[in-house]
């Protein structure tokens, strides 16, 4: 299916690996020009070159840095002639016990996973509305629907972003001008993040990481972890011309792990 977005420009945050890269690859396959971002400059450069080779007809620009920093966001937005598509993403905060987190750790989590996306939305949404097209996708977490105790920093920051999006996505001056804002809620995906999340449990239990991975995978109705490629495909659809009637939604992608009806 042609998603009708070839030639548009997308800013994809934290896109050198994992789910962000999956989104960048899927958009590139649809002919979308990209501004990619990551904190690791060498890894970002390698990813950008691979994206160019996979989709020779597009332009790929790189902006290294932490999106929680205002100057990085300014450079990121300035790298595109106009931002038609924005994919907000940032590495999740560390696991731990809420009793041990201090204010600085909370401030960092909120900065990366709530405030930075809000600032990027604020900087791009009205311009999208003026041009009559805009797609904003925020990569949050399945923990927004089913909080995980050890991920309290993530639970809090991402839930705050979810509440903010629920309010603004339905504004007529955005939704009525073909600007959609949606959230993608990943469950367990086969990325470096899953290893970082499960390693403490493996160490505490005296088991190998592979044993813990297998146990978690067995608890997912799909019987496996997701792949960045299928996550990226879902993101690309939400960014498509065909998805203009979908806004303010939280799409859970977790292989059926969430047990609720709603």
Low-confidence runs of at least 5 consecutive residues: none
**What is the typical, i.e. mean, pLDDT?**
95
**What Rg do the Cα atoms give?**
18 Å
Gross morphology is globular
- First-residue to last-residue Cα separation: 29 Å
The number of distinct β-strands equals 7
Write the layout of secondary structure elements.
Layout: E1 9-12, H1 18-29, E2 33-38, H2 41-54, E3 60-64, H3 70-78, E4 85-88, H4 103-131, E5 134-139, H5 152-168, H6 172-175, E6 179-186, H7 192-205, H8 209-218, H9 228-238, E7 250-253
Parallel strand pairs: 1-2, 1-4, 2-3, 4-5, 5-6, 6-7
Summary keywords:
262 residues; 14% strand; 7 strands; seven-stranded parallel β-sheet; 9 helices; 46% helix; alpha/beta
Q: Could you give a short description of this structure?
A:
With 262 residues, this protein is of the alpha/beta class. Helices cover 46% and strands 14% of the residues.
Question: How would you describe the overall organization of this protein?
Answer:
The protein is α/β, with parallel strands linked by helices and 262 residues long. The chain has nine helices and seven strands, in the order βαβαβαβαβααβαααβ. The protein has a seven-stranded parallel β-sheet, with helices on both faces. Helix 7 crosses helix 8. It is globular, with a radius of gyration of 18 Å. It starts with 8 loop residues before the first strand and ends in a 9-residue tail after the last strand.
């Amino acid at each position: 299916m042609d998603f009708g977005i070839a030639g548009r420009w997308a800013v994809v945050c934290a896109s050198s690996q994992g789910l962000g890269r999956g989104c960048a690859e899927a958009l590139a396959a649809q002919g979308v020009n990209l501004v990619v971002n990551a904190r690791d400059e060498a890894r970002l450069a390698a990813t950008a070159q691979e994206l160019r080779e996979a989709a020779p007809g597009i332009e790929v620009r790189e902006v290294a840095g932490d999106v929680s920093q205002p100057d990085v966001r300014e450079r990121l937005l300035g790298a595109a002639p106009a931002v038609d598509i924005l994919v907000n993403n940032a590495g999740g905060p560390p696991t731990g016990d809420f009793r041990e987190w201090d204010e600085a750790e909370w401030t960092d989590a909120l900065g990366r996973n709530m405030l930075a996306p809000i600032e990027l939305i604020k900087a791009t949404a009205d311009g999208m509305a003026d041009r009559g097209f805009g797609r904003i996708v925020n990569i949050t977490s399945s923990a927004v629907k089913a909080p995980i105790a050890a991920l309290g920093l993530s639970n809090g920051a991402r839930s705050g972003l979810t509440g903010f999006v629920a309010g603004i996505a339905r504004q007529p001056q955005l939704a009525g001008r073909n600007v959609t804002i949606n959230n993608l809620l990943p469950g367990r995906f086969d990325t470096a993040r899953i290893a970082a999340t499960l390693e403490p449990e493996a160490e505490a239990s005296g088991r190998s990481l592979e044993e813990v991975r297998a146990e978690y995978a067995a608890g997912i109705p799909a019987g496996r972890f997701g792949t960045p490629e299928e996550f990226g495909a879902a993101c690309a659809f939400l960014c498509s011309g065909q998805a203009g009637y979908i806004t303010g939604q939280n799409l859970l992608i977790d292989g059926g792990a969430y047990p609720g009806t709603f």
